[in-house]
Amino acid sequence: MSQIKEITVQELKAMRESKQEHQLIDVREESEAEVASINGTLIPMGEVPDRINEIRKDIPVIVHCRSGARSSSVIQYLQANHNFTNLFNLKGGILAWAGEIDHTLPTS
Question: Can you list the alpha helix ranges (DSSP code H) found in the chain?
């Protein structure tokens, strides 16, 4: 099984600040994204197989969920079945973003 690459919320923040091209995918459910979002493209975990064509292969793609578990599963699936090599799991997910970057973000 291929290794899952991770990126910290600090690294994502630096990428955004330096305007480094990347795609952010949020694999949480719509109801969760309505509570708190860091402006990723919402593709709920269950919809990923039908929306593969929305996920880029030519730039870094950061996948996130609430804590990092679902996004990790999605990355494993994409790497194993669709030959993605540019995926990064956002370590700690939106909870880490709220805890370290944006303290105004609701976490529940």
Answer: 9-17, 30-35, 69-82, 93-100
The model's pLDDT over 50-103, given as tens digits with 9 standing for 90+, comes to: 999 999 999 999 999 999 999 999 999 999 999 999 999 999 999 999 999 999
Domains belonging to the chain, first-starting first, are 5-100 (3.40.250.10)
User: Does the annotation count 65 as an active-site position?
Assistant: yes
Q: Are 94 and 69 in contact (CB under 8 A)?
A: no
Best CA proximity match to 26, nearest among 67, 81, 86, 58: 67
Which of 25, 65, 87, 94 is an active site residue? 65
C-alpha–C-alpha distance, residues 32 and 95, integer Å: 12
d(CA 59, CA 78): 15
User: Is pTM beyond 0.70 here?
Assistant: yes
Token pair for residue 66?
Answer: 């609430």
Which residue, among 101, 98, 103, has the nearest Cα to 32 in the 3D structure?
98
Side-chain-facing half-sphere of 33: CA atoms under 13 Å? 16
